[in-house]
Design brief:
Radius of gyration: 14 Å
Helix content: over 70%
Shape: globular
Number of strands: 0
Structural class: mainly alpha
Distance between the termini: 36 Å
Length: 98
C-alpha cells in the first residue's frame, strides 16, 4: 500500500510540472477551481502547493502512519487510476501541441 503513496506522489509532481508548463505556454487550462485560483495568484505558489501535498504523502510513509482500512485502499486505488488518466491526457495533449 505504501507503493500507492509513492505512486501518487510521483504523479502529483509530474502533473504539477506538466500543468505549469502547459498553462504557462497556453497549451492547456487548469479546470480544478482551487488549483486555478492558486495558479492565478502565482504560478510558483501552484508548484509549491502541489509539492507540499506530495511531501505530505511521503511523510505518511516515513512516519509509518499509512492507514490500512478498506476505504483508504479503495480511495488510493481510485485516486491512482484517476490521476493516471489525467497525467496521461495532459502528456498526450502536450505531445500533440509541441
Amino acid at each position: 500500500m505504501t507503493f500507492l503513496f509513492y505512486y501518487l506522489t510521483a504523479l502529483n509532481l509530474l502533473d504539477a510540472f506538466i500543468t505549469w508548463f502547459g498553462i504557462r505556454n497556453a497549451f492547456i487550462a487548469e479546470f480544478n477551481p482551487i488549483m486555478k485560483a492558486i495558479y492565478e495568484t502565482h504560478p510558483m505558489l501552484f508548484v509549491l502547493t502541489k509539492s507540499a501535498l506530495s511531501i505530505l504523502l511521503i511523510l505518511f510513509v516515513l512516519f509509518k502512519i499509512v492507514p490500512r482500512s478498506s476505504l483508504v485502499k479503495f480511495l488510493l486505488l481510485f485516486a491512482s487510476v484517476s490521476y493516471s488518466v489525467v497525467v496521461i491526457l495532459h502528456g498526450f495533449w502536450l505531445v500533440q501541441i509541441v
